[in-house]
Amino acid sequence: MGARQRVPEPGSRRVRRPDRGGPRRGGAGRGGHRHGRGARGRRTAYFVTLFQAGKLRANFSFDELHAFLEFSPASAAAGPLRGEPVFVALRSFAAFGSRTLTVAHAVDLLETAWSDPGRTRHTVDICLNGLAFAAPFPGQGELLRRYAEEAVRAHPGDHMFHARLAAGQHMCGEHDAALENIDTALALLAASPTASLGVLQDQYLTKRDAIQEGRLRALRDAEQQRRWERQAAANAQLERSLHTSSVRAVEVVAVFTAAIAFAVGSLQVTLTGDLPLSDRLWLLAAQGAGLALFALLIVGGTWFITRGRHPRGGDRE
């Protein structure tokens, strides 16, 4: 019959036997267990933060998203996971849409998330989304086009990135290229199994209509500009013609006045006086030379005064 186990009496305290030199059972690895539990907590806080941030991003609540990512307890509990590229991309999205944060700060966050080796397709989507819906700033179209081109090269079959590229090209006035990319996005969307097909298709068609309208407006503006240039050239030509005509009129008047004066003077010399014929001829020659010099001075003076108003060769068509 086996040895009987001693059952402690009710109310008595069980005395722990001292260790005999060996490690306590379960004592080893207690620190590792605590470390693992902390890592799981940070991971849980990280996913909770991403979930809530995704809802704020979908509602375009830029300032609320910025405050949540920077100051919420869940975000603080994520610890070093706040440096993950998707987290930084969300901060960039909030900064681009906020009216209180600078564009330089948003661009710095964008570049940090974009250049991270762990960048995923979701990170790229958040970055381009922030650029597309940012508060307007100088160079926005060029920046969106540049990053969207890189995204399309890395993911050529992604309809969303083609649509972002079309938006950037539209902002830059490249309407033909934008129309081509939005058509590509529509074709890729039709072939992709997505639950939000109808919503995205409506968005892409709306963007396509905006691109078409911008293209037609650009064509009208270009035609209007050409008309203005032709009208300006015609006005310049008319001004040159009027200027030349007025100068020629002054010259003709001067010559005609001199001719009349010579005729009247010659008639007086011829009909009156008792000078010999040779003296009369010399007098007529002197009078003619004087009047010719007068006409020459008038013509030369007119040319000298008006020469500065002649258009230069570089101003002519």
Task: Explain what this protein looks like in three dimensions.
- This protein has about 325 residues and is mainly α.
- About 75% of the residues lie in helices and about 0% in strands.
- It is built from 11 helices and no strands.
- The radius of gyration is 46 Å and the shape is rod-shaped.
- About 20% of the residues are buried.
- The model is unreliable at about 1-30 and about 310-315 (pLDDT under 50).
In short:
The chain is mainly alpha-helical and 317 residues long.
Write down the oligomeric state: single chain
Distance between the termini: 125 Å
Total strand segments: 0
Summed over residues and divided by their number, the pLDDT gives a mean of 81
Which structural class matches the secondary elements?
Answer: mainly alpha
Instruction: Bin the helical content.
Output: over 70%
Query: How much beta, percentage-wise?
Result: under 5%
Radius of gyration: 46 Å
Which word captures the global form?
rod-shaped
**Biggest sheet, open or closed, and with what strands and sense?**
none
Number of helices: 11
**Which stretches are poorly predicted, pLDDT < 50 over at least 5 residues?**
1-28, 312-317
What are the secondary-structure elements, in order, as H or E? HHHHHHHHHHH
What key attributes describe this structure?
single chain; 317 residues; mainly alpha; rod-shaped; disordered N terminus; disordered C terminus
Task: Show the helix and strand layout.
Elements: H1 30-58, H2 62-71, H3 73-77, H4 85-97, H5 103-114, H6 121-132, H7 140-154, H8 159-171, H9 175-190, H10 197-271, H11 277-306
